[in-house]
Design brief:
single chain; alpha+beta; Arc Repressor Mutant, subunit A
Length: 73
């Protein structure tokens, strides 16, 4: 992951943390297309697993990434 990619992924993870519903490690996009795309983009980098079109789950790598970015998840 490049520095530029990391910067964008931190911003995206912060948006997920702030605007989507999180239940433990599971994230609910609330059927908002931007949330669904965010989950998909984070999944492409191995930070989330896509459960279905509405839900995603932070991977172990994603949880570490969030902790390092100090998102408070």
């Amino acid at each position: 992951m490049t520095g530029r990619e990391k910067k964008l992924l931190i911003a995206l993870a912060k948006m997920v943390d702030q605007y989507l519903d999180c239940h433990q490690d599971e994230v609910d996009s609330r059927s908002i297309s931007a949330g669904e795309h965010a989950i998909g983009a984070l999944a492409e980098f191995g930070l989330m697993d896509v459960i279905n079109t509405r839900f995603g789950r932070w991977t172990e790598t994603g949880k570490k990434f969030v902790a390092e970015a100090k998102l408070g998840h």
